[in-house]
């Protein structure tokens, strides 16, 4: 009995049970949901959100938030596309340039938050608009294509039955898990979010930690932009629009506390899968996109409310 209590006390196990129940429900009510093809479709779509959610987990653990990830995805994809299509730059150099864009966006976010002392919500909301606007300016609002096969295969290729983006997502998740759980910097990220002033008192350079997590988040948003652009075979300024909500939802559903100091990559991965399953299931059930937004918003509110109530009880 004591063992059962300990198992259920593990938050990731509870989240996993929610995923299983949701999948069983949709398997019964949504025709074709449990087909192999549909399961792989879900996993593929989860990859883009999941990569960004790994970065968002680190940001939220520090007590911050980043609303600009969807726009950074779009801007980095446009930069990669323009360099390859319009200027004939090698795909690898183009991709690295896109990553640099993500890093710079994250650096600006981190600078505004740590040095100018602008709240994360406001600074990243501004970056959301700036990055999206730049994406439209650079592309003129037109889709950019085609691209070399060596680039598109990174998004459209398969390794056996597994889509390549899924493997990239798995790699990012494993690295992020090890980084947060087993490195000194990872422990400092938790300490910064758990109690900022106490972290400063023990000698942690909290501004550097905050700067780092926003840079990592920007980089992973650009990485998701690379995967999505390669998958679609076209760069679009509106790519990733609204993704910030799904990313935050996946992170919070996965057990990362908006109060800071708590969260795991494993929980976030499960949360991202729940988001993918929910969206896919609603589509198969014929629910309109408008009601899908209502459902996603409701899930976010419920997850945050649960986190607040749990936090109140623990305190």
Question: In summary, what is this structure?
Answer:
Helix content is about 75%, strand content about 0%. The protein has about 325 residues and is mostly helical. Strand 1 and strand 2 (about 160-165) form a beta hairpin.
State Rg: 19 Å
Largest sheet: 2 strands, antiparallel
Structurally, how many domains make up the residues? 1
Shape: globular
End-to-end C-alpha gap: 26 Å
> What's the helical proportion of residues?
over 70%
Beta-strand percentage? Answer: under 5%
Order of helices and strands: HHHHHHHEEHHHHHHH
Low-confidence stretches: none
Just give the CATH class.
Answer: Mainly Alpha
Q: Compute the number of strand runs.
A: 2
Layout of helices and strands, plus pairs?
Layout: H1 2-9, H2 11-29, H3 36-61, H4 69-85, H5 91-114, H6 120-139, H7 149-156, E1 158-159, E2 162-163, H8 164-182, H9 184-194, H10 196-201, H11 206-232, H12 243-253, H13 265-284, H14 289-314
Antiparallel strand pairs: 1-2
Helix pairs in contact: 2-13, 3-8, 3-11, 3-12, 3-13, 4-5, 4-6, 4-11, 5-6, 5-11, 7-11, 8-9, 9-11, 12-13, 12-14
Structure description:
By secondary structure, this protein is an all-alpha fold. The chain has a single domain, classed as ABC transporter involved in vitamin B12 uptake, BtuC. The protein contains 14 helices and 2 strands. Strand 1 and strand 2 form a beta hairpin. Helix 2 packs parallel to helix 13. It is globular.
């Amino acid at each position: 009995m004591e063992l059962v209590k300990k198992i259920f006390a593990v938050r990731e196990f509870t989240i996993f049970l929610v995923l299983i129940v949701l999948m069983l429900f949709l398997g019964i009510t949504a025709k074709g949901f449990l087909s192999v093809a549909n399961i792989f479709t879900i996993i593929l779509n989860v990859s883009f959100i999941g990569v960004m959610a790994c970065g968002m987990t680190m940001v939220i653990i520090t007590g911050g938030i980043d609303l600009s990830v969807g726009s950074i995805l779009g801007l980095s994809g446009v930069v990669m596309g323009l360099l390859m299509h319009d200027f004939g730059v090698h795909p690898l150099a183009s991709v690295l340039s896109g990553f640099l864009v993500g890093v710079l966006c994250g650096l600006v976010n981190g600078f505004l938050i740590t040095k100018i002392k602008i709240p994360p919500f406001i600074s990243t909301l501004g970056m959301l608009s700036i990055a999206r606007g730049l994406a439209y300016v650079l592309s003129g609002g037109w889709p950019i294509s085609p691209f070399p096969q060596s680039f598109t295969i990174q998004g459209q290729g398969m390794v056996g039955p597994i889509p390549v983006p899924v493997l990239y997502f798995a790699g990012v998740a494993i690295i992020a898990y090890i980084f947060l759980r087993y490195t000194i910097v990872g422990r400092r990220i938790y300490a910064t979010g758990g109690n900022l002033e106490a972290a400063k008192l023990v000698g942690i350079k909290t501004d550097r930690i905050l700067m780092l997590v926003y840079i990592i988040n920007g980089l992973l948003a650009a990485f998701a932009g690379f995967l999505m652009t390669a998958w679609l075979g076209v760069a679009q300024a509106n790519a990733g629009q609204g993704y910030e909500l799904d990313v935050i939802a996946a992170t919070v559903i996965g057990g990362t506390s908006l109060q800071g100091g708590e969260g795991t990559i494993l929980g976030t991965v499960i949360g991202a899968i729940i988001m993918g399953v929910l969206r896919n299931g609603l589509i198969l059930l014929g629910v309109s996109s408008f009601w899908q937004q209502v459902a996603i918003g409701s899930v976010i509110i419920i997850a945050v409310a649960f986190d607040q109530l749990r936090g109140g009880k623990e305190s």
